Amino acid sequence: MNIGAIISENKKRIQLGDIIGGKALTKYCRIAHGGIAFNVNALLDSGAGGEAFVHHRLFPFIKTRLKPKLYHIGGGGVSVAGHNNKQTDTIYRLFQASLLIDGRRVPTTFLFCDTGKHDMLIGRQWFEKTRSLIDCYGRGLAWRDEDNKAYIFDVKREIVLPRQEMHPRPVNPEHQADVERRDGLLAAPTQVVKKGVDPKRVRKLFCVNSNNGSSSDNGGAVPIGNGRTSWSRDQRDNLRKMQAQLYPKPQLPSPPRKPKTKCPTPAQLRKAGIDLNFVSALGFGLNAKCKDVVIGAISLHEVDKLIRDRVEEEDDPLADDEEELRRIIGEKLPAVYAAYTDVFSKHASDTLAPHRKGVDHDIVLEGADQRLAPSPLYNMSLEQLELVKAYLEEHLRKGFIVPSDAPWASPVLFAKKPGGGWRFCVDFRKLNAITKKDRYPLPLVEETLQRLARAKSSQGWT
């Protein structure tokens, strides 16, 4: 039908373009393997019974450039049927690579077959694998990110080959021979043209000097010059050289170059205890929508400063302590204990000791009812409330305590210090009442001292 519209029974004009035809639903994606990638425009076809299908014409390009491991299907291959259930092609080869689409990297199996005018088809099994849906209205894919966390990150960088290499244009042998002949003549300035060739045509093609256009001693041959020249151009060049020699320009000192800020290497980041990963803009946007993701800003200068501070802490355990404390430690600490200077570091005391299996203290509850009874809150003044807030913020920052939503709770209170100020206390009496006691007999102190009072020690050397 060549008409642009039809008229229905109710005299309403219907545009055929709204119900027939239109552009195919394709998606811009990338096939990557071994650090090499190339872009393709894939047809989204949920009726294709496979993950992905690639046209035969891309087989030489993929084999020579991507160099994946190719698998051959035995038993005469797998036949492919069209919409009318008639065999249209046979699949003999396949390979495995990564399909980069919408900022996601999906391991995919690609089959070589006739895909028509499209370079690639994405089939039904790929949509089942990624749990993605075809969005016909938005002409793209609808992703369920909660089910695709394994594919959401894309931090690798590949060398993307230009699309022209996929379908190279055929070269005319006559044109290629003519180009090679011209390159050979231009590469040898002293080469001559045989007698019988029009010198004007040679000057026009190869920029021959007019002074060299006369006959020479080479049997009437015409030598080829190196480029165009003229009297006026020579005069300008000579004048410029003379001015440069008579009035040389002073050599101004170049301004000092600012040192470039280099990106820290992964080894430096690991040594400083920093875990960083680079993601694309699309990957950042996808991760920003996920739960429990904190978004912040940091510069390379701050990262370098953090690395330097961490390294200095390892070199000098008292680097972050006050100068007065370091002076007191240096004066009063005996020289024999100089190796244990970090034990007196105020900065090191603010770091929580690591967990040690078999040494950590466990609180074991006993009794049928292992729940804490509710405790009333103690009345506090404004000063004490501020002290509670400062105490919690400080110990949360150090890592001594962590936020918790457990049903266990014990009230806090303050006790007056003899020298002034307040001592932070926690009322654990109800917790101690249901805690299993570690009871074991202790030796009598008086008996132990009596036995040690008359003890003698002797040492011998051999």
Fill in the keyword field for this structure.
six-stranded mixed beta barrel, single chain, two-stranded antiparallel sheet, 5 domains, Cathepsin D, subunit A, domain 1, extended, 462 residues
How would you briefly describe this protein structure?
The chain is 28% helix and 18% strand. The protein is of the alpha+beta class and 462 residues long.
Number of helices: 13
How would you name the oligomeric state of the polypeptide chains in this document? single chain
CATH architecture group name of the largest domain = Beta Barrel
Distance between the termini: 116 Å
Strand content: 15-25%
Classify the helix fraction into a percent range: 25-40%
CATH C-level label of the largest domain: Mainly Beta
The profile of the biggest β sheet is:
6 strands, mixed, barrel
Looking at CATH, the homologous superfamily of the largest domain is Acid Proteases
> Using DSSP, what is the number of strands?
18
| Major sheet strand order | 3-4-11-5-10-9
Low-confidence stretches: 207-227
The class by helix and strand makeup works out as alpha+beta
**Overall pLDDT metric:** 76
Structural domains: how many = 5
Provide the CATH topology of the largest domain.
Cathepsin D, subunit A, domain 1
Q: Given the C-alpha coordinates, what overall shape results?
A: extended
Rg from alpha-carbon coordinates: 42 Å
